[in-house]
Design goal:
Blueprint: E1 2-7, H1 11-22, E2 28-31, H2 40-43, H3 48-51, E3 60-61, E4 74-75, H4 97-103, H5 110-124, E5 127-128, H6 134-137, E6 154-157, E7 159-160, E8 162-163, E9 166-167, H7 170-173, E10 181-184, E11 189-195, E12 198-204, E13 209-218, H8 221-231, E14 234-235, H9 237-242, E15 249-250, E16 256-258, E17 262-269, H10 282-295, E18 307-311, E19 322-327, E20 343-350, E21 357-360, E22 371-373, H11 380-397, E23 408-411, H12 418-428, E24 430-431, E25 457-459, H13 474-492
Parallel strand pairs: 1-2, 1-13, 2-10, 13-25, 14-15
Antiparallel strand pairs: 3-4, 5-7, 6-18, 8-9, 11-12, 12-13, 16-21, 17-20, 17-23, 17-24, 18-19, 19-20, 21-22
């Protein structure tokens, strides 16, 4: 029997498991619902284009978003070892320092989490993308002499967890470097096993059991972690009773506080601009595998999101409230998925959304799709800031050094402004794929990541964030895994 069971081999879980082993807190088994991450499309940066929406993606969708055109919005989540860190664009930002200070949780101010970030980065070695497209490099003209950071207005090529042109996920950098951790794939968890208030293992969807001696850590993410807790009898009593689940603990905040970075994209088109299937690029595409194989260069070496901006939507402050992800590829907004055109894409993502939604189970079946309500634009100010951000982004992009590669905004087009722009955002927005908050610290989970009123049960993933950080969430998720291992190892000692 192993000492610790880590449920979920995503970014947090991989770091946590490796750190528990390194700290000699006890023996560890990690279980993952999906398959191994050993696949060429995981390694090749541009491979994410084919991974999203595949069998290695849970392919979740939201419930109809009443303030966003009553649409169901895609919520990609990685379904393999490495989790979403095996299908994401590998962008590396800690967030803003005051993100963590504003959580107002003991032990989680920026001064507390900075050592964990440093330790993770020492193994991952995130660096600016060396093979960025000329368009991406032209972003530096917008805010000269800056490096992209959410701390102040800035623009340029982002940093990535890539080594030698290959994805360097938490699975590769942490989990696979340890030979003393048992990893099992294809293990979809139904519910936890209890001994009084103590978590002692898990029942899988196929009915088999895994038991451990010292405790269980949920690292399955903001969707699966609350789902497992609910199926285990911890959650809003009325909801559990309606699904025929016996309530061990009436915990109404489980599943609440769900939110994400809403995003809206601008599509640009122009011959000879970004990557695309226009005839003049056919030879380059034919040679792309060779170019990547020999030089780790070209389109296949691109993580698609190559750079971007942080800025204040209204231009009234140097503190950014929106982020732009820049993709130097033609992205179709209608018609054929791969038209013979060239172009690029830039979005506006809200750094600190105020709107909140919730997570609920659709049934107690562990294989059933859940009810994911992101609550987009329930707070009208989120929409206002995004609309202002689009207007200013259009102005800022004119300062980019795109030269003859500059294209025209074809969707929604610069003619769409004012109330028409707000309507467009409601009807076409998506998210940055950063769902957080469903088991927030200060609510169902303590500052040391223990599930309240239980023993030997912790949560370490993005679900514990009281509020989303002001940029991409992969780096903070790994930091949370590191901090979780630190707390658990101290408790074990």
């Amino acid at each position: 029997m192993r000492d610790y069971l880590v449920i979920g081999a995503g970014s947090s879980g991989c770091v946590l498991a490796a750190e528990l082993a390194r700290r000699e807190a006890g023996s560890v088994i990690v279980i993952e619902a999906g398959p191994s991450e050993v696949h060429p499309l995981v390694t090749i940066p541009m491979g994410l284009v084919w991974l999203m929406g595949s069998s290695r993606d849970w392919q979740f969708k939201t419930s109809p978003q009443e303030c966003a055109g009553n649409r169901q919005i895609t919520v990609p989540r990685g379904r393999m070892v490495g989790g979403s860190g095996s299908i994401n664009s590998m962008v590396w930002f800690r967030g803003r320092k005051d993100d963590f200070d504003s959580w107002n949780v003991p032990g989680w101010r920026f001064a507390d989490v900075e050592p964990a970030f440093q330790a993770v980065e020492a193994k991952l070695r995130p660096t600016p993308l060396k093979t960025a497209h000329k368009l991406t490099r032209g972003l530096t003209g917008i805010f000269p002499d800056t490096t992209p950071t959410p701390e102040h207005e800035s623009a340029g090529v982002f940093s990535y967890n890539l080594i030698n042109g290959r994805r360097n996920s938490a699975a590769r950098a942490f989990l696979r470097t340890r030979h003393d951790i048992e990893v099992r794939t294809g293990c979809n968890v139904d519910r936890l096993i209890w001994q009084g208030d103590k978590a002692v293992g898990a029942v899988l969807a196929d009915g088999s059991e895994i038991r451990v001696a010292k405790g269980v850590i949920l690292s399955a993410g903001s969707v699966a972690s609350p789902a497992i807790l609910m199926r285990s009898g911890i959650g809003p009593k009325d909801h559990l009773t309606a699904l025929g689940i016996d309530t061990r603990q009436d915990a109404p905040e489980v599943g609440e506080n769900l939110h994400d970075h809403p995003g809206i994209g601008l599509h640009f088109e122009g011959p000879g601009s970004g990557y695309g299937l226009e005839p003049r690029q056919w030879l380059s595409w034919a040679l792309a595998p060779l170019n990547y194989g020999l030089r780790r260069a070209g389109a296949l070496a691109s993580p698609t999101v190559e750079g971007g901006l942080f800025f204040n939507a209204r231009g009234t402050d140097d503190l950014p409230d929106v982020q732009t992800h820049f993709i130097p590829f033609y992205l179709a907004h209608q018609g054929p998925k791969f038209p013979m055109k060239a172009g690029y894409f830039a979005d506006i993502c809200l750094c600190r959304p105020k709107s909140r939604g919730s997570f609920r189970l659709a049934s107690k079946d562990p294989n059933a799709a859940p009810v994911i309500d992101l609550g987009l634009f329930r707070d009208e100010s989120d929409l206002e800031t995004m609309a202002e951000g689009v207007v200013r982004l259009r102005t800022l992009l004119r300062d980019a050094d795109f030269g003859p590669r500059r294209g025209a905004e074809i969707f929604p087009s610069e003619a769409v402004t004012g109330e028409a722009l707000k309507t467009h955002i409601r009807n076409t927005c998506g998210t940055a794929y950063h769902p957080v908050g469903t088991l927030r610290m200060g609510g169902p989970v303590s500052s040391r990541l223990k599930v309240e009123s239980t023993e030997n049960l912790w949560v370490a993933d993005a679900s514990i964030m009281p509020a989303v950080t002001s940029a991409n969430t992969n780096a903070p998720s790994m930091m949370i895994g590191w901090k979780g291992a630190e707390f658990i190892a101290e408790d074990a000692a």
